[in-house]
Automatic annotation (TrEMBL):
GO cellular component annotations of the record: ribonucleoprotein complex; ribosome
Transmembrane segments: none
InterPro entries associated with the record: Ribosomal_eL30-like, Ribosomal_eL30-like_sf, Ribosomal_eL8/eL30/eS12/Gad45
Keywords associated with the record: Ribonucleoprotein, Ribosomal protein
Name of this protein: 50S ribosomal protein L7ae
Domain Ribosomal protein eL8/eL30/eS12/Gadd45 intervals: 8-94
GO MF entries: RNA binding
Source species of the chain: Paenibacillus elgii
Pfam families: Ribosomal_L7Ae
Signal peptide: none
Amino acid sequence: MNKNSDKFFSNLGLAMRAGKLVTGEDMVIESVRSGEAKLVIVAEDASAGTFKKVNDKCIYYQVPIHQYGRRDQLGASIGKEARVVIGINDAGFARMLLKQLDRTEVDGIDQTRQQ
């Protein structure tokens, strides 16, 4: 893990403690449908079916979605067991996390993530 990913996971934990996120496929999809979700994070090791289901909802409701980290990393960062899908329900936290997702360090050079 690099410095950026440490900060990302730390800020996910902060959002959890502030009560600004939901976890689990069903809860996140409900949050997306209701317009509460401002950002969705899906673990890189999520099943193809889970990713497709969540991604389709995010596209339809125009909610940003990113794949980042493993399920154990996402869960540990929020003080829970492994989590595959996390929804951020606060615009401020979503903006902060998106900035961290958009900037990744590759070989010591910051590069913008390709979607």
